[in-house]
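User: Study the chain.
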Amino acid sequence: MATIDNTVDIVYRITKQLNTSLDLDVVFGNVLRLTVEATGAERGSIFLLDESGQIIRHILARPGQPSETLQHNIKQVMSCGLASWAYKHRIGTLVTNTITDERWTQLNGDKELTGSALVVPMLYNEQVNGILTLHQKQINFFDESHLALVTGIAGQAALALKNARLFEEIKTLAATDGMTSLYNYRYFKERLHEEFERAKRYKRDISLIMVDIDFFKKYNDAHGHPKGDMLLKDFSGILQKALRDSDIIARYGGEEFAIILNETANDVAVEVAEKLRKAVELKDFEGGESQPGGRVTISLGVASYTDGMKSADDLVKNADNALYRAKEEGRNRLCA
């Protein structure tokens, strides 16, 4: 039976790893690798869970090899087996012999992983954020000292995961417009600069669409600000539904919106803009009949990167000028 030496040093090294980054794959990959090496396990896994208990990441590590994040269908792992048992009971378990342990044979349903195992939940405030498992082909390899060490590591890992998620929530809030849940102006400017410089450096396409809701002030005056807010939210929903996940949609200010289309040439961007224009024109917004023309409509300006542009500001200026022309020419149209 294996024994653990230098437990304090092991915990220190792992805790240090947990504080080096907020990248979940990197952090937990390093923690798992150190845990595998420290315990002598033949392999280890960390299953990171969302609030409903569904697995969102499966990280695997073996001695002397870099950890890897698996992309296969991993939800089934929590439907049976000791991982499910540990999640339900919120306690770690030690299996000294997978062949003779009834919990293993009954819950896991097979004897593919013969030997000994540890299965420990990552608990924070009674919430299971993940499951840490270790396996060794040798029976009677793990003992209570291994279980105690891994339980301590799992607790520290759960705290680190909670902190990482809080950090992501804060970043999202800082980048999000509270009214529409789209990105805000500040985030838009940062991303546009990054994407423009990338397109310029590698000679890639990038386009920008500026959008303005026509006669929005008239709508607000006629129906009040609460209805105006609802119109902004409904319009934001149309944008999110019509565009790609990779497109960056932001509330530019007031009733004006901006859309960054990466890897998109001007002719395609014009098609996208026209699709949005038609979608809004055909939508029966509440109170839309009071608008000029009897419908809520939008005007759009489209601009794309061309040789000679020095900065993202040039792209914004061109798109703004195109939007201005669309308004001058009668609204409910696009100019490029």
Remarks:
- Residues 185-335 form a domain with the Alpha-Beta Plaits fold (CATH 3.30.70.270).
- Confidence is low (pLDDT under 50) at residues 72-77.
- Residues 144-175 form the longest helix (32 residues).
- The chain is about 45% helix and 20% strand.
